[in-house]
Amino acid sequence: MNRKKPTIYAVTGMLMAGKTTFIKQCLTRSPQSRKVLVIQFEKGMESIQGDTLYIPIRDVQSQTDEELVTRIADAVMETQPSDIWVEWNGMLPVQRLITLLSHNALRRCCKLGKIIQVTEGQGYLEQLAVSGSMLMEQLLQCDVAVIRNVDRKQLRTTRRALARMQGSVEAIAWEDEKQIDSLLGFPNVNEAVRSLTIFTACVALAGLFYAMDIPIPTSISVFLGTWLQAIPFLLLGILISSVIQVFVSTDLIRRLFPKNLLGGMLFGVFGGFLMPICDCASIPVFRSLVKKGVPLPAAVTFMTAAPVINPVVMLSTYYAFGGNTKVVLARVVLGIVASVIIGLFFVRTRTSIFTNQYSAVACACCQTFGSEGKPASKLVQLVSHFRNELFEVGKYLLMGIAVSTFFQMVLGSDLTQMNALGLVGSMLLMMVMALLLSLCSSSDAVVGKNMGASFPIGAVMGFLVFGPMMDIKNLILMSANMTKRFIVKIAVVSFVVCFAVVYVASLLGLEGWLA
After folding, report:
1. HEC profile of 356-376
2. Which residues contact 193 (CB under 8 A, 6 or more apart)?
């Protein structure tokens, strides 16, 4: 009969982080039937009872991987444990630990479970932003970060920050024994409760759709269709963002970028014109530009202009309106004017638009490490950045699409009974619909034309200009790491400016020119 392989839990952290104390607390909650082997690469302030193998730091530095692996494997075979806890020395590269635990000799007799970083919560994010590579390497290699001395608000902030640095990391409070027990596979009813809650929410949502006479198969089709439209452009935007972050240095951008305000904003418009990205893809690029030192007004101009004036949007608008080049030209010109004015509203913004200091100063992916603990190649950094950004932005995109699908199914597209609203009323209605429906800017022209068939052309233009700049998907995407103050300001400013620009154009004879 084959014996089940013991699971390795590796604990990392800087000196005095509390690694030994954490291991002891976990062992006290471990079922009595589970035999544990503790392997320490540093002596903690507290002693651990039971089977313990101590390997001094001088042995790690003087012995080969094969010699160290042999010592560990011999201890495992001798003690026959159910679990193995490894306390790694905070002064040694954690990549060395990964190399040891991945050795074939150890993989034959045990399996790697979780790598856990234990850290002090106070000042942790600031340390990551300014410290050397050791702490960041630990974070990038760990599965779980156990954080001490944080309240709920600090924990939420830290979780969001760590998720942006290392997309798969799970942040847990030191005092949260239920989550830690779940992490270690101890009996825990919390997971069952969470699963039941999700199931109940799905049943309730299905009941709501049924009560509102909304066909669920059609809703699923709309959701998948919107997702399939958005995902190629999202991937392209994340790829461009990753290339900027990894290959384009801050000094290069600052040298090439125009120094004066007008030149910078025109540069933003020109970049938006060239890049074939939609609204959900412009936000990751916008974030990378700001991180690289591009002035906020120019970056805002790019973010709002790109979804309106890029080549794909112009082509889709051309076909939607039966080859009417005047409509395409009007959308581009009004989009450029609106985006430049929106950018000017952020000239005096001096505070960070990001929810934490780290987001504004650095990118953790650019500190990815190779097998020898040295900075990885640019290609590896690119893949790492792309992966983390996709996990970060993708979940918010899915939430945004789900919300917009609901509004699409509830509101529908037949507004022909509301054609007596006048120019102002119809513009406001169409712009609110653009916000709620959250259509992809590469395909919104067809919907806008059909919805606004009985409205003034100014209402349709309000839909086509404002919709790509700001909708529910964009707001949820920005909420990933931008401040509420910035999100509210850009949403309100975009709405007011787009309305004013299109309204003035309508008063100046837009409808007659397009007729």
Report:
1. CHHHHHCCHHHHCECCCCCEC
2. none
